[in-house]
Amino acid sequence: xxxxxxxxxxxxxxxxDPRAGVAAPxxxxxxxxxxxxxxxxxxxxxxxxxxRGERTFTELRQALPELSDKVLSDRLAHxxxxxxxxxxxxxxxxxxxxYALTPRGRRLGPVLQALWDWGAEEx
Amino acid sequence: xxxxxxxxxxxxxxxxDPRAGVAAPxxxxxxxxxxxxxxxxxxxxxxxxxxRGERTFTELRQALPELSDKVLSDRLAHxxxxxxxxxxxxxxxxxxxxYALTPRGRRLGPVLQALWDWGAEEx
Lengths: 123, 123
What we know:
The structure is a homodimer of 123-residue chains.
Chain A: H1 30-38, H2 43-51, E1 55-56, H3 57-63, H4 69-81, E2 85-90, E3 96-101, H5 103-106, H6 108-120
Antiparallel strand pairs in A: 1-3, 2-3
């Protein structure tokens, strides 16, 4: 009501939040790490497919028919580098390479859900 | 174990999920809507500042000292267009324009939390 002290007040709800320390964009900021993993057209759709289970390259192409081989290869390499998925080679003949989410990759499920929920809301 | 029928099997866990229908990147996909709102360097940091309360332009600049006036103006315009924040002009003299999150903008809190949590995890 009267004077407010600004600058040294505690931040309600954000007491020891480490986000308080991020004052400029940084690739090591956790929010940036996640956004970087999800970056690129098709990336979230590839993750969604793999949340349903392991897939071969061909199965991914069938699920996303407008996606080119080149872009799918790029996205799979990107997601592998981000620790989201792994290639696994099944023994036997013919050899079948499958792509599967890592445990970390499966934890993108709730992240995609949060992104979906916000975007699906009425404004 | 034996033959698997592929293609017409129900998707366990995703029965009526509307995401099933998104087969190509689309700006109207809710995930894309949210990622588009958060796009751009500094954008998430500006939202974080406003999650702490209304701010004037000058207060935002002080909280993010490496952010230039031009980029801050751009980000505020972008977030206004995305329905995340509104400008409010307080009556009185001198006039003070403040930036505040809309209810929709405040609901970005859990989204940023989900992005943070995933990126902060050990791989």
